[in-house]
Amino acid sequence: MHNQNKTIYGKNGKQSNWKIGTIGLAIVGVLIAMNLVLSRVGITTPVIRVTFAFLPIALIGILFGPFVAGISAALADLLAFVLLGGAGTLFPGFTLSALLTGVAYGLFLHRKDIRLRNIIAVEVVIALFIHIVLNTTWVFILTGNPLAVILPPRLIQNAVTLVVRVLAIWFLTNNKQLRAVYRKYSTAKK
Q1: 190 falls in which pLDDT band (50, 70, 90)?
Q2: How many CB atoms lie within 10 A of CB 163?
Q3: pLDDT score, position 11
Q4: Judging by beta carbons within 10 Å of its beta carbon (0-12, 13-18, 19+), is residue 131 exposed, middle or buried?
Q5: Over the stretch 9-48, which tens digit does the pLDDT of each residue have?
Q6: Closest Cα to residue 168, out of 133, 119, 103, 134?
Q7: Which residues of 136-145 are buried (b: 16+ CB within 10 A; e: fewer)?
Q8: Could you count the other beta carbons within 10 Å of the beta carbon of residue 83?
Q9: Are residues 100 and 56 in contact, defined by beta-carbon separation less than 8 angstroms?
Q10: Average pLDDT over residues 120-137
Q11: Residue 155 and residue 38: Cα distance in Å, rounded?
Q12: Per the count of CB atoms within 10 A, which of 87, 114, 169, 174 is most buried?
């Protein structure tokens, strides 16, 4: 009996943080569905596309940590392709990028006092490492276009969306009505 509990309980006998329960699983499911819907709605110009699909993944990271957020983001990426008809073939590089984005949100924002510097830090890491380096690499591999053609619009896109992302997450995490919800359902209870 004691060995069965090792998967749920840590060495010190306290419940491990990865177990989110039925309500937590339902919240994650709803947030993944919101991610899918928000990925289809956005402001599009010839150079920039702004969506709010990142917000549900950021909220999963805030509430449930890096592991759950990473898996949720990867699952959302796969579901978007399967359910919403992705363009071309499924490319695992973009799924890896989604996973790393969720992990980054969880690492920077879960179990922390969410301050503006934390939000800026996670968004800079995501923009520079994941969007500019990794996703540009994936686009280069898929299209074969030179980096001189791919990179400039991606730099503009990320500079604009970085500001939007920081402000949106800052607003959501500092909303007094939503704080009570975060405290109630988060695995980061203190």
Answers
A1: very low
A2: 11
A3: 46
A4: buried
A5: 334 444 445 567 888 899 999 999 999 999 888 888 877 7
A6: 119
A7: bebbeeeeee
A8: 10
A9: no
A10: 96
A11: 22
A12: 169
The whole-angstrom separation of Cα 58 and Cα 53 is 9
Give pLDDT, residue 16.
Answer: 42
Contact 101, 130 (CB under 8 A): yes
Mapping DSSP to helix (H, G, I), strand (E, B) and coil, where does residue 51 land? strand
Give the C-alpha separation, 33 to 72, whole Å: 10
Tokens found for residue 143: 């299209």
For residue 117, give both structure tokens. 């510097």
Alpha carbon distance 77, 152 (integer Å): 25
What pLDDT digit, counting tens, does each position of 78-87 carry? 998 888 776 5
Helix (H) / strand (E) element for 161: namely helix 147-173
